[in-house]
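Today's session is about reading a structure prediction critically. Students often jump straight to the picture, but the first step is always the sequence itself: look for stretches that repeat, for charged clusters, for runs of hydrophobic residues. Only then move on to the predicted structure, which in these notes is written as discrete structure tokens rather than atom positions. Here is the chain we will use throughout the hour.
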Amino acid sequence: MEKRAEREREREHGGESQSMKGRPAGDGAHADAQCSAPAAGSPVQKEEDEQTPEFSAKIWAAQPPSVEPWDACILKVDASRPDEILPQEDALDNLVEHPVPVRPVLDASTNVIINMYLTKQERKKLRRRKRQEKEREKQDKIRMGTAFSARVAAERKERERPLLRS
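Below is the predicted structure for this chain, in token form.
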């Protein structure tokens, strides 16, 4: 009974009792006392629950800092309230730093054309595409009535010839 009371006192105070000094931590005789938690309704458990908030308050900082050290240069301190740091409006307005515009080496008015040498196949494809494009434009004009087909043009010429002879 005395050993149990001594162990409880040891747990409360966090130190070693006289009987535990010099013994290894994994001693078989006291292993159950070291590893087991106090019962839910025991006075030791109640004391531990009451001490937990105080213990955590001592370990952890009360509040995180209001300003990080690297942000201190952009913030100003109010003389009447040194604990509160106010942001400088002008320093925070332009958050993105834009690079200074650099003038291009070449003038924009002069168009520089880089010569590209095409293979024989590529030249053929380009010629074919250009011809097809011209033909499509011609057909579109005929459909809209702004241009005449070769047949219509030939017929008109035939009609105009007799008029010119007379």
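Discussion point for the tutorial: The two ends are 147 Å apart (CA to CA).
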